[in-house]
Amino acid sequence: MSTSSQPPSRRSFGRLIAGGAAGAATMALGACAPGGRTPASGTPLRIMAINHVWSQAVRRRLGEFEDLVGRRVSMSLLTADQLASSYNVKLNASGTDVDVMMVRALQEQGLFAHNDWLADLTDRVRNDADFAWDDFQDAPREASVTAGRVLSVPVVTERPVLYYRKDLAEDLGGVPGTLDELEAASREAADRSRGVFGFVGRGQRAGAVSQWSSFLYSHGGDFVVDGASGIGSPQALAAYEYYGRLLGRTGPPGATNMSLEQAMPVFAQGKAAFYVDADAIYSSFLDPAVTTPAVREAVGFAPFPAGPAGARPHNIPSWSLGINKFSLLRDDAWRFIRWAAGVERSRELQSEGIPGARTSVWEDPETLRKFPPELAEAMRVNASRGIGHDRPRVLQVGRARDIVGRPLVAAVLGQDVGPVARDAHAEFGEFLVRDNRHKES
Amino acid sequence: MSAAGLTSAPAGGERRTPRRPTGRRSAVTFEQANRRLRWAMLSPALLFVGAMIVFPLVFTADLSLTNAFGAVNAAKDHIGPTNFTDALADTRRFWPALGRTVVFTVGAVLLEAVLGLALAMLLRRPFRGMRWVRTVLIIPLLATPVAVGILWLLILDPTNGIANHLLTSVGLPPQEFLGSVGQSLPTLVLIDVWQWTPMMTLLLLAGLTTLPEEPEEAALVDGAGAWQRFRYVTLPMLLPTLATALVLRAVDALKTFDLLYATKGPGGGSDFEVETLNVYAYGLTFDYQEYGLAAAVLVLFTLFIIGVVVLLRRRGGGRNA
Q1: How far is residue B306 CA from its own chain's centroid?
Q2: ipTM above 0.85, yes or no
Q3: Which of A96, A185, A239, B39 has the most CB atoms lying inside 10 A of its own CB?
Q4: Across the interface, which of B73, B158, B179 has its CB nearest the CB of A92?
Q5: Where does this protein have coiled-coil stretches (chain A) (predicted)?
């Protein structure tokens, strides 16, 4: 038998495997290593954005920017989850294939800043008089700053609004001005046996937290009080129980599986009398492809109702623009942000019904003409009362929302909220300690 | 001449230097060249295995021993087996997730095996329209799990879905299905059964067609009934195929992620009701950015899958013997 047909020995096979793995590791690490590279000519400016009316409106105008900058622009539109996962994968590999990043300042910015993934825009915004950084509303502008550095520029803002059916509200004593009135009217309107619900809203553990925040603030609570967990306070407990009664007893079945995508169609199909969600989605209820004619004709808009601590809705920058720290086209990326979030473009987009973050634009009545008058007034009122966050301001926002949302789910399911809230309070307290440790590391 | 013959001592104890046969140098050169060629031919596959399997496994195992948080390439310390002890001490998420993984896998695979075997027995004998039936049967297999999840999400929507419309139209109470904490896992098991029973059927059908007919005919002559022929003749002969099908489906079901995530979202629902180990590890990675802990959970999950496969193979092998 010829020796040439013998299989490789175990030792040589192991050496080859180890060599291959080492080679692969070297190649992978080499590919990840940043620094010293210049973009190839013709490299497009790459923008990753949420699939949102703002992004769609900007994409229609990209030709104008391409002429201005002399470079091709590629814009990818993704869902929020896809966007977050893409950033996670690309930036963990120090990827240069994204230049402008659409981010949620309150969700991702803290962590991205901790990871050093966002370019510092402080000098750019402050040294550019035409950009008028001070023109941005206080709450969105403050949310753009992490550890004293401006890391993003807000482009879309959002507040909760009470959507209601005018035809039903008339018989229920008018538009609810308080949370108690909302609950009473919802109870009266609800008739599950006929498939009619008094109230619909988000009920998913983490997804509901942002909308529930306005109920929490209006009961006098907050997620974090004096650096410690605030979700075990009597105010938070009252807010949990209130929302549980409202959605659990007068809402549709399966409410704990509902986020925006599930709750909105229930109202759009005329099956609920009241709905609290972001004002940015109002156009869905005027869209014949989404909403029944009866709802389109009868939909009304009202400011967030007052709770025991008054009406305290959130007013937040839902979407902002930042620059990838590893981008090779940072100057052009800034030119895009300057173009897209400048006074002129903000005025133009808000005039199309997309609420922005600039004070001067909000003060111009012309920019509100596209909005239904009742909605414009509700937005103005909510903005004036607004609180600048709708979720805990921590590094690990995802984990924080999961903890805070647990008692919310228990409340909607009709369980005893007290023990769950106490358990979540303790867990959130421990979480805050760990999160602070991460911040300091 | 053999190599042994070249070096053996001659008779009479006289040692002589063996004469190198003509062509020896060229033969060695050929062997060396052949060996090099062998490695050259193997190297692309080995490089692929190294880059795509060995490196990620080693990297994950190493990551599981660190406190990596936020970014994988950020500074991190090796903290020993802390992540493993943390995961194993986590009664809030890890152990319930492992329990759901087992329940989902066992429930889905057992139902698929029973239904798949029944369908395979029905389709075993040729009949009119057999090709059509087989074509229709594999349709669920062709859809991606995400599309299947969204399809069933729409059908089972408690408020606007057609399932409750049908139930109420025949006087039955509406159900919450995927909107319910209690009904979600059983519903997802049934969706998995709907999609993957055809694969089990095809595998078992392939096994049935290879079985000899004589033993069954002999049993028939001996007066065995249909059930007795199935129970004592067909099933024992089919066991090797059944064991292989069970291993393949069990490993696949253990790793199910897309269907669960598409229907229930991050964390496996509001009460973590369908959070399996896969969903949990994904959440730790992409929602919490706790890479060290996520890697530890994945290592434990991999060991668990290997354990299940070894167990099933041993049991299958024992029966075969």
Answers
A1: 10
A2: no
A3: A239
A4: B73
A5: none
